[in-house]
From TrEMBL:
Signal peptide: none annotated. Pfam families: adh_short. The keyword Transmembrane does not apply. Keywords: NADP, Oxidoreductase. Belongs to the short-chain dehydrogenases/reductases (SDR) family. This is NAD(P)-binding protein. PANTHER family: RETINOL DEHYDROGENASE, WW DOMAIN-CONTAINING OXIDOREDUCTASE. The lineage of its organism: Eukaryota, Fungi, Dikarya, Basidiomycota, Agaricomycotina. GO terms for molecular function: oxidoreductase activity. InterPro entries: NAD(P)-bd_dom_sf (IPR036291), SDR_fam (IPR002347). Coiled coil: none annotated. It comes from Crucibulum laeve.
Length: 335
């Protein structure tokens, strides 16, 4: 965070008047998602805060209004990503509400599932929420994103919040695979840090999904038509970016001795407001608008710095494995 270029979300973002944006995972009053909503709303966008809890979401929106965000600028969208079915319902609700969608920020995530949880199909909670539910949400919203990209002066972006944690733990293993549904159910329960291992694998999946999606949008003729992806006659002008928000202090209260942990984290970690800057850059920086080809499929460190992700994250073979297996699993659900 110390070498990040100077960035100010008040002056360094596009005017977003008339734009519609959805940010998932914004219910927490101290979270990155809520700060992302705030900065983008201040630039004139109509922002949907995607969250499961109406009570917590509305409390968060009330806090934004106390900070000067006009009523009606940020609205709650029921968005429960804990199951594929509810993720689909969230997207369908968004389709009912809006005729355009300029930016989708896939921000919600499980940082550490405290139990070794798998769903009825044997898929880990981390991979389900952090990857599969966002895959369903994104592809259900894709026709609206595509139609918006064809409007005059459009600048449609899909932002996927990953983590540099994808370079760690089992996500960095040379033998990692996404060839089968069974690969989605590896819990690493034998590890001391099993929840972290599951998290890093899901963050690797975020980057692989972003690159696979960008390829399909940029070169649709190179891929067969599938049930989950619309048939496209020509490339689509949508920029997909994945990113690391930086180390952000949103969890000190869940650590032992939270008061002390908060002080120590404050020395090395960003505030949630600063943690939102990279997402805001990806969502609305004029630099991306002026050089979209440079940023399509890119992975960003704060703020707006293009870097190469891990070797696994750069693997087209691995990303296509992930896409195919996710598509097979989701297709079998018949949502």
């Amino acid at each position: 965070m110390f070498w990040s270029p100077t960035f100010n979300p008040t002056t360094d973002l596009l005017d977003l008047t008339g734009k519609v944006i959805l940010v998932t995972g914004g219910k927490d009053s101290k979270g990155v998602g809520l700060s992302t909503c705030k900065h983008l709303a201040r630039k004139g966008a109509k922002v949907y805060l995607g969250a499961r809890s109406e009570e917590r979401a509305k409390a968060a929106i009330a806090r934004l209004q106390e900070e000067g965000i006009s009523p009606g600028t940020v609205e709650w969208l029921p968005c429960d990503l804990s199951t594929p079915q509810t993720a689909k319902e969230a997207a369908e609700e968004m389709l009912k509400r809006e005729q355009r969608l300029d930016v989708l920020v896939n921000n919600a995530a499980i940082l550490a599932d405290t139990m070794i949880g798998v769903n009825a199909d044997g898929i880990t909670d981390s991979l389900l929420v952090n990857h599969i539910s966002h895959y369903i949400l994104t592809l259900t919203l894709l026709p609206l994103l595509i139609s918006t990209s064809r409007l005059p002066k459009s600048d449609v972006r899909i932002v996927i919040v990953s983590s540099d944690g994808h370079r760690r733990s089992h996500a960095a293993d040379t033998d990692i695979s996404f060839k089968t549904i069974a690969d989605f159910g590896k819990t690493y329960k034998e590890e001391r840090m099993g929840p972290f291992a599951r998290y890093t694998v899901s963050k690797l999946a975020n980057i692989l999904f972003a690159s696979a999606l960008q390829r399909r949008l940029s070169s649709p003729s190179s891929f067969p038509v599938s049930p989950s992806f619309p048939a496209l006659d020509e490339p689509v002008d949508i920029t997909v970016v994945s990113l690391h928000p930086g180390l952000v202090n949103t969890f000190a209260d869940r650590l032992p001795f939270p008061a002390i942990s908060g002080v120590l984290l404050g020395l090395v970690a960003k505030s949630p407001d600063g943690g939102a800057w990279n997402s805001c850059f990806a969502a609305a920086s004029p630099k991306i608008a002026s050089e979209p080809d440079k940023y399509r499929g890119a992975y960003l460190l704060p703020v707006g710095k293009i870097v190469a992700p891990s070797k696994n994250a750069q693997s087209e073979e691995l990303s296509e494995e992930l896409w195919a297996t996710t598509e097979t699993y989701v297709g079998g659900l018949k949502l």
